[in-house]
Amino acid sequence: MDDRAALSQDMSSKVRLSTAIVTASYAPDFERCRLLCETLDRYVTGADHHYILVEGRDVALFRQLEGPGRTVVDERDLLPRWLHVIDDPLSLFRRRIWLSWRTKPLRGWHVQQLRRIAIAAHVPHEVLVYIDSDVAFLKPFDCRRFQRNGHVRLFRRSDAMGGWLPGNQKVWSQNAAEALGISAPVISPYDYIATLIAWRSASARDMCARIEDTHGRGWIEVLGTTRKFSECMLYGRFVDEVLDGDGHFHGAEEFCRVHWLGHAMSDEEFHDFVATMAPEQVAIGMQSFIGTDLGRIRRLVEA
C-alpha cells in the first residue's frame, strides 16, 4: 500500500493520534522560519500545534511568530541546567558553543538535535512531525499521511549504506548502535535521515530510557560525549532493532525535496528544481548555508 492509499484508509479510520509539528531554529534563520510558518498556515492540515525550539537568547525574536496554534519553546526548559552556552572565542565570538563537564563542547547543530529529542518528554501530543526551519511548503499536505490505523510512519531508505556516502551516515549509524546497546549489525543497511518525518512521542521517550539504561547515565551525556550522532539514525535504529517496528510502518517516499549541497541557485535553476519535484513532494528545503537569497526564494514560492 502506498502513502496515498494509506492516507485514504486512515481518514476513514476511527484512530487518530494527536499531532504536533516541531521546528528547531536559531536567529540567523528567523526569516526562513517566518516563511515556513506562513506556508505551513497556508498548506498544512492535520496538526494540532506547532512548536519552535530555540536558544534562550532567541526567544524574544521568535515570539513574533507565536499565535493560537504556535508556541516558541526556550531550550532551557528542555535541556539540563549544567549545559551552558557562550559565544565561542575561537570563532571570534561569531558562533555559539555549549559547554559542560559532562560532554564534549557542542555546536548549534548538536544542540538542535538534542532539543528535537527532548521535546517528546514535554508535550502531550502522540505524534511529532519534524520540519526544518529552511523548508517552505508549495502544495497542500495533511499530516495524517504519517498515520495508519494508529501506527506512525517511519521514514526508511533501504539498502542505502552499502557504498560510499557523503557525510557521516555510517559513523552516525555505528554510534547509534553503541548508544542503544545494539551489538550487530554495527552499521545498519538503512538510512533514516530526511526532512519532513514523524516520530511517535512515546517511542522517543523509550529511546532515551534505553540509552540511559544501557550506559547508566543521562542520554544527553551519552550523545554529547560522542558528538557524532544523528537523531534520525538513533530513532530509526531504535524502532527497527529494539522495538522490532512496534507501532510503526515504513515509508520511503520523501515529501520534501532538499537542496543539500552545491551553489546558490539562479532563478532558472530554482524553477527547474521545483518543476522536477516528485509527485509526492509538497515542500522544498534550501539549506541556509548554501547562500540562496531568501528574497528570491520568497518571490518564487509566492509566485
UniProtKB/TrEMBL annotation:
InterPro entries: DUF6492. It holds the Pfam family DUF6492. This is Uncharacterized protein. It comes from Pseudaminobacter salicylatoxidans.
